[in-house]
Amino acid sequence: MAEYPRWFNALQRVVDVFTTGLNVIGTLLIVAIMVLVNWDVIGRGMFNAPVSGVPEIVSMSIVAIVFLQIAQTFRKGRLTRTEAVLGFVEKRAPRLRIALELGFSLAAIALVWQILSASTPLFVKSWVRGTYEGTIGDFTAPIWPVKLIILIGCAALLVQLILYGMAALLRLLPRAIR
Q: By C-alpha distance, which of 74, 62, 64, 97 is closest to 159?
C-alpha cells in the first residue's frame, strides 16, 4: 500500500464519506422501489387497485440509483476493468501500470466531464420548464430531481476520478518530492 501525504488522506476521507452517503441513499431508494413494486402487485392482484405511476417512478429511480452509486462503485474497484492485463503489466513494469492508471483516470475525467457538461443544460431546462413524467390526471412527477441526481453523481464520480489520478501521480513521483 502506498503512503500518501496527510492532506491527501484527509481529503480522501471527506470525499469517501460523501460518496458513501450517496451510496446509502441509492440503497434506500432500491428498498423503496421494491416496496412500491410489491405494493403495486398486491394491490393489482388482490384488490384490483394498482398504484398509479409505478412504471414512471421505477424508470426514473433506476437512473437515480445508478448515478447515486456510481462513485462508490468506482471507489471500491467494482467497475468493469481488465485486471488480467493490468496484473501482467504490473509484474513486468510496476510503474507502467501506475502510468496506465493515471492515463485511465485522465481519460475518464474527460468523459465524465462531458457527461456533466451535457447534463447541466438538461437539468436547467427541466427545472425552468417544470418538465414532468406521467399523464396529467393520473400521475405526474417532476423530472428535475433525477436530473439533479445525475449532476451530483457525475460530480462525485469526477472527484473520485481526480483523487484516483492524484494517487497514481503521487505513486509515480519520487518520495522526496511528495
A: 74
- Name the pTM for this structure: 0.92
Instruction: Return the SS3 of 124.
Output: helix
Helix residue ranges per DSSP H, 48-143: 54-75, 83-92, 94-129
> In the prediction, which pLDDT does 166 show?
96
> By the 8 A CB rule, do 37 and 54 touch?
yes
- pLDDT (0 to 100) of residue 86: 86
Strand partners, 126: none
Q: Give pLDDT < 70 ranges for the chain.
A: 1-2, 176-178
- Over residues 16-38, the pLDDT tens digits come to 999 999 999 999 999 999 999 99
- What's the rounded Cα separation, in Å, for the pair 61 and 30? 8
Burial (Cβ within 10 Å: 0-12, 13-18, ≥19) of residue 71: buried
Select from 152, 173, 137 the least CA-distant residue to 70: 152
Let me know: does 136 contact 52? Beta carbons within 8 Å. no
Query: What is the structure's pLDDT at 24?
Result: 98
Across-strand partners of 140?
A: 134
Q: How far apart are CA 116 and CA 155, in angstroms?
A: 7
Distances (CA, A) of 19 to 60, 115, 123: 21, 18, 21
And the C-alpha cell for 148?
439533479
